[in-house]
Specification:
alpha+beta, 2 domains, 8 helices, signal
Length: 346
């Protein structure tokens, strides 16, 4: 953290606040073995936590457990290490936990090498704590960013351990920026020249394409999770207004696939598909009791009818109920999922 503080003050003296998408969040090590960590702050994504059990939704009013995801890039000085390391960091904000869902080392020969991920663990101090601040406490750093834009220097951001680093892309350009702004006193390792210039350019394009595909995949996953979450919230909100029997019949089914519904309820009585929508019908029989008024003759002392009255009686009737689940594709996934229901009794 001492190295980070010194670099922070150096940048404070020279840097203007830029509308960039990277924060410098940590500096580690001493020359010639330094590492700079940068987080992409404007693309934080959210998804449902894998620990959520679809059959046991949270009580009404309680938010669904979410996981926040962002990208962190580490640039390394040592020739013994990769040029950059890409981390896909996931955080459970309420629990104060983080994991490294994906780790990729990019060598100075332009090749990518996947690294072992890290399972859920307490956040602790260092760059993961700064990533937690970005993902979980956006109002705090947004307020600091706005104050610094008005003041013209990243003072408020620097006070919470974040420094704007401008608009840079993943790979050599981000590495170039770190070397030109932070490590002007260092000796940059040479890049391996494996192949012709055309080979190097091709590998560079392939690497950039892989990064773009990965980013697009993460964005699509986040959009799919958002769509599924919205469907689940609407389903549960409507279900909360229903009678107990209906709640018991449909609880925990929002977002399930056909196979998921069958595992929970068994095979349906009928199933139809039309215009991109699936209709799964379940039937149940039972007895329905109710109090009814029945006419009763009023007799005189001689047994003659002199009028009519009513009396309350409990009657039991056979009842057949159809529990209907409606499914359609949600987000980019082609497999239909439960998004609505109907309940009809006769």
């Amino acid at each position: 953290m001492k190295a980070f503080a010194l670099a922070a003050w150096a940048l404070l003296l020279t840097a203007q606040v830029q509308a960039g998408n990277w924060f410098l969040i940590d500096l580690q090590g001493q020359r010639p073995n330094r590492s700079a960590f940068l987080a992409e702050f404007d693309r934080v994504q959210r998804r449902l936590d894998d620990s959520v059990d679809p059959s046991r939704p949270p009580p009404p009013g309680q938010p669904l457990p979410m996981v926040h995801r962002l990208q962190v890039i580490a640039v390394h000085e040592s020739v013994e290490r990769a040029d950059t390391t890409q981390f896909i960091v996931e955080l459970r904000c309420a629990a104060g936990q983080a994991r490294l869902a994906q780790v990729t080392a990019w060598g100075r020969n332009g090749k990518a090498q996947p690294q072992p991920p890290m399972d859920w663990a307490p956040v602790g101090q260092g760059w993961l704590d700064a990533a937690r601040l970005i993902a979980c406490d956006e109002p705090r750093w947004r307020a600091a960013l706005e104050a610094d834009r008005k003041g013209g220097r990243p003072v408020a951001l620097g006070a919470i351990g974040l420094l704007p680093f401008g608009e840079h892309v993943i790979g050599t350009q981000l590495s170039d920026a770190v070397w030109s702004q932070l490590w002007v006193d260092g000796q940059r390792p040479a890049y391996a020249n494996e192949g012709t210039p055309a080979d190097l350019e091709r590998r560079k394009r392939e690497g950039q394409a892989l990064l773009a595909q990965g980013a697009a995949r993460l964005e699509q996953e986040a959009e799919d999770q958002k769509a599924l979450m919205e469907i689940t919230e609407r389903f549960n909100a409507r279900l909360a207004r229903m009678q107990t029997k209906v709640v018991q019949a449909f609880q925990g089914l929002a977002g399930r696939t056909e196979d998921g519904v069958v595992k929970a309820l068994g095979a349906p009585a009928s199933m139809t598909r039309s215009s991109g929508q699936t209709r799964m019908v379940y039937e149940e029989e039972g007895l329905r009791s109710g109090v009814v008024q029945t006419p009763v003759a009023v007799l005189n002392g001689h047994g003659a009818v002199i009028g009519q009255s009513t009396q309350m009686q409990v009657q039991t009737q056979r009842e057949v109920c159809q529990r209907i689940l409606l499914l359609k594709p949600i987000g980019s996934k082609p497999e239909p999922r439960v998004y609505d229901f109907q309940s009809v009794c006769r």
